[in-house]
Amino acid sequence: MSATSPHTNTPEAMNVDQVMKRNFIALLKLLAVRIFISAVLIAVPVVLFKAGAPNTVFLVLPIVPAVFLLVLTVYRLWGGVRLVQCRKVLDHYPLQFQARVMKKSSLWTEYGNVYELKIPTRGEHGAPMMKAINAAGRRRWPEGTEDGVWVAGDLVFGGVMVVPGSSAMFFLNPADWDKLASKREQAGEERIARAEQAGINRRNWRKPILLWGG
Predict the structure, then answer these.
(1) Which of 48, 68, 150, 203 ranks highest by number of CB atoms within 10 Å?
(2) Domain map of the chain by residue range?
(3) pLDDT tens for each residue of 188-213
(4) pTM for the model
C-alpha cells in the first residue's frame, strides 16, 4: 500500500495500543448497557410480584425482550466483534494514512452494520470494494472519515481501518473475495506470507456476518 502524498495534511500517527484500549473500553460499555437493560427488564416483574401484583402473563412480559436482548448480544459477540483479528493485523502491518474513504452503502444485520466502502490509494488504480464492520460492535458510522483514515493491511486480502479522533476501528475484507483471487495469487511470496501471518490470507469468516446480504 503506497504512502500518502506529502501534500496531504496527515494527522499525528496513532498509537496501536491506545487504539486497542479505546475499542475494548467501547465494547465493555456496549455490553454493560445491554446487560443493565436486561437486568432491569427481568427485575421489574419480580419487584411487582413481591409488591402484590397479580401473577399474570402481562407481569412476566418484560422478560421476553430481556431474553431477546441477551441472545442478540451473544450473537453480536460471536459474529461481529473483531478486536482480536484487528490486533493480529496491526501486529504485522503499519498504519498508513489515506486521505479518502468513500462509503457506498450500509447493510443492517443482527451482528452489526456492514458497510461497503472504497479506500482510493494514490498511485494505484482500481481500489477494491471492501466490506467493513466495527470491530467493537458499534453500529453508528463514526464522524471524521471525511478527513481521511488510517489503514493497515493489504486490501486484496483485507485489513483494518482506524478513524482519527474517535479511534473507531473497522475490520476490512474484500467485498468480492473471488474476484481478487488472481491478484492475491500474483502478490508474491512475501506479501502472501505476511497476509498469512496476519490471518487475512483466506476468506476467514468463520461466522456468516459478511456473507449474508453480499
Answers:
(1) 150
(2) 18-80, 82-198
(3) 999 999 999 999 987 755 444 444 33
(4) 0.81
